[in-house]
Amino acid sequence: MTAGDGLPGDDMPIVRGISERWRGLRDTLLSSRRFQRWAAAFPLTRPVARRHAVALFDLCAGFVYSQVLAACVQLDLFSLLQHGPQPAATLAARFSIPVQAMTALLEAAASLRLLERRGERGFGLGPLGAALLGNPGVAAMVAHHAALYADLADPVALLSGTSGERRLSRYWPYAAAPSAPELTRAAVAPYTALMAASQPMVAEMVLGAYSFARHRCLLDVGGGDGSFLIAAGRQAPRLELKLFDLPDVAAIAREKFAAASLGDRASVAGGNFLADALPRGADVISLIRVVHDHGDEAVLNLFARVREALPEGGTLVIGEPLAGAPGVDSVGAYFEIYLQAMGSGRPRTFAATRQLLHLAGFRNIRRRPTRIPLIASVVVAQS
User: Model pTM?
Assistant: First the structure.
């Protein structure tokens, strides 16, 4: 058969050629200073040129923005200002910071909508600062980013592997030492606390997209301190709860279940989900912010263990941000570099996750929409 037979895909080389030529023309124009000046002056292209200029500036200034946020979190400004605006001089005296420097921080935070100028009363909460108060997990993430920023001081050295020991890999010790006996309670406590602080946002997205009330028993693998299971247990009061994580993490979860009066519904097992068999008996297993922390070989191994632990027709629920999800392009950019610094894992699209699930023997794989995909998407599969 020839290209004229009309078979699907016959025109693909032509389409790709046209697309590449268009991209080449676009790149040539956008890199031309003469074209940039013309586009900024021409009424029809001026709004686009301005948006591109602002986007490029935001990329250059992004680290400064993040440090403004970090300073506000470190000073606990949002909690302080929720009771009402305060003058810059008052805040400067409180934190022993020169008035001029404190004013610079407050003005910068106001320009980022973290704070607002309130005239003679000083500065109060802005819309983003107020929203952050309702999501304490965001503040916890900002605080731990100090390790990431230190690793990114020389990003090329980080990527080339010549930067020495990474602070972020010490923060997530299982990335460097996946063997359960090597990880003590002191080693797992910081990241377990961070996961617990940010878990309510993730649990809200997952439980809003998938109801566990239809199931009898849920096993949360890599379940941390049990925060997700507690939330799922509230959604489904008859649901039996099981948790599997590293022994010292599991011990923290056991204490939290007891404090939540769930001792009669919840059981905890310690082990390494990359090396040990998973507990059986659950008809649904969840992996909440677990998969993207590991490479493809480890994930395929994990999926196979989950498939083995589930009964025929059992369900796997994955909850985590997915690269390529509509409207969340920044997820891929963030996690690509974050996981490089962490030393383990990679962000995956739904298609890449689905392929690994197929290889592990799962079927009927589908993505459930969530209200805020930036926080978490949900993938459901049957064994």
Answer: 0.79
